[in-house]
Each structure stands twice: as structure tokens, then as C-alpha cells.
């Protein structure tokens, strides 16, 4: 099997998708730039009126992941349900679909897939295809009974025991040790070290901070050479090191959203400037980090992490 660049690069459709990617990247950069210079438990990607969580399509059961996790969470809507115009039309008819959506602006998401390249008659060459979909948040719809889709509570995250993330670590077979005053994953010995839960609470944070930190370290853990084999052995403070921290931040937020946990914010404020520079130099860096974070979360799900399975079907969108 061979891979090639998309034949659609540079056309009008591709340019529209690039504009969406740039818009979301610029929004993340803006939020990072507005953080206090001494920020430690901040929320760099939160938007006024929005809350981090598992946004999904109640018709298909699709949970928006990867880059689309960022798009939906940065949209500014508290409601986590999204539908397309065609889904409204199929369920209610054209007249009502037009009434529900009149005057409302859609939110674009990007679907990524690998498809055969028609330029290769053998069919052995694939290229990455990007498709733009436009969604309406259910809270936008005019005179719409939101209970039609069951309400968010019915499809919401399962109840998680107070030590839920620790149970997740157990199910994954993580070598987790509570020792010292640093949270870190050590690739050479394949181990996570964490401060005690009590030290988080005593330090004026919370159990949620502990869980967010542990999910961050578990995301690093998935990148070990025996698992997803990401580039973990990099120099402290280097560009690659900072990029892996961004992957871990996104992985923590995505996994926490599926578990129904609040996102408790940025773990490593010292990397803010590195992230800003990286995103400005390469707007697609956020796409790359989102994809790797999504793979990390899929690894957690596929390897015995029953706790983060929702009752609705989880499908990979990005």
C-alpha cells in the first residue's frame, strides 16, 4: 500500500477546510496568549459559555473526537448535542427543518479518511481526504423541543467512582506509584510517578486536578515504544518535548470528557510560548497533536478501559 498527497489540494473546497483549521488554531493561540504569564491550573481552551465535555450527534451516536473535539468545545455552546440539516429534514421534513434552522449559523467540522487515489489504476495508493460537514447545535434550533433527542442526561457520561481514573490505570496495567512531589511518566522504566491525592487537596486544588494530571500522564504512557511508539525521548524543553506535552494535554481533556470529568486545565504553563510559536509556524500542528491524542484515547478504550465507554456508540470522527 502506498500513500500520496491529496489531488484536491489547492482547490476551493480544500481552501475552505484550511480556513476552518486556521480559525480554530487562531482561537487556541489567542486563548494561550491571554493566559497570565504565571498560569498554572488555567483553562487555555475554554470559551465563554462553553464547557469541555463529550459533544456528540444524538442521531448517529457519534462522539466528536480529535480536531472536532476542539471545534465543538470551542464553539461557545453549553449544549453538547449537534445535528446536520439533512438529519433534521429526514426526521421532521423539509418545512420544519427550514423553520428550525432559519437565521442560524452552522459550525463546520472536518472528517478525515483515507481513500483510493483514482490516478492509480491498481488501487494500491491512498490519499487523505478531508470532508467538511456543517452542524447545528441543538440549542440553536428555533421553537425546537430538545427532548426529542432524549436530552443530554440520558446520553451523558456514566457515573464515575471517585477513584475512577485510578481504576482506568489498573485496567490498562499502568505501573503507577505514589512517591515524590512530581507527576511524570518515565519511559526508561515504563512507570508513572504521582504525588499523593492528599497533596493535591492540601495544595488548594482538588481530586479533579489529580485525575486530570493522571490522565495527562497516562496519555504520555500510551506513547511508550511498546505501545503507540511516539517520540518520547526528547530533550527537556525542546520543540518535540513541548509538542508531546500538547498531545498529553489534549489526551487528558478528551479522555476526561468521555469519563464525565471536568477539564481542570493546563499542566505545564512553561510550554505556552513553545506551543504558540509551533502553532503560528505550522497551523496544522494542532491537527497533528489532536490525531495523536485521539489515538491515545482510542488505545485507552480498546485496552480494557470500560470506564470511559459511554452508553452511546463511540465512533472516530477525526
Explain this structure:
The structure is a single chain. With about 325 residues, the chain is an alpha/beta fold. The chain folds into two domains: about 1-155, no CATH class; about 165-310, no CATH class. It is about 40% helix and about 10% strand. The protein contains eleven helices and seven strands. The protein has helices at about 10-35, 65-75, 85-90, 95-100, 150-155, 165-170, 195-200, 205-220, 240-260, 270-280, 285-300, and strands at about 1-5, 80-85, 105-115, 125-135, 175-180, 185, 190-195. The strands form two sheets. Strands 1, 2, 3 and 4 form a four-stranded mixed beta sheet that branches. A hairpin with an 8-residue loop joins strand 3 (about 105-115) and strand 4 (about 125-135). It is globular. Mean pLDDT is about 80; it is low at about 40-50, about 155-160 and about 310-318.
Tally of DSSP β-strands: 7
Our count of domains comes out at: 2
Please provide the ordered H/E string of secondary-structure elements: EHHEHHEEHHEEEHHHHH
Shape: globular
The residue fraction in helices comes out at 40-55%
In terms of topology, how is this protein built?
Layout: E1 2-3, H1 12-33, H2 67-73, E2 82-83, H3 85-92, H4 94-101, E3 107-116, E4 125-137, H5 151-154, H6 164-172, E5 176-178, E6 184-186, E7 191-194, H7 197-202, H8 207-222, H9 239-258, H10 272-281, H11 285-302
Helix pairs in contact: 1-10, 3-4, 6-8, 8-9, 9-11
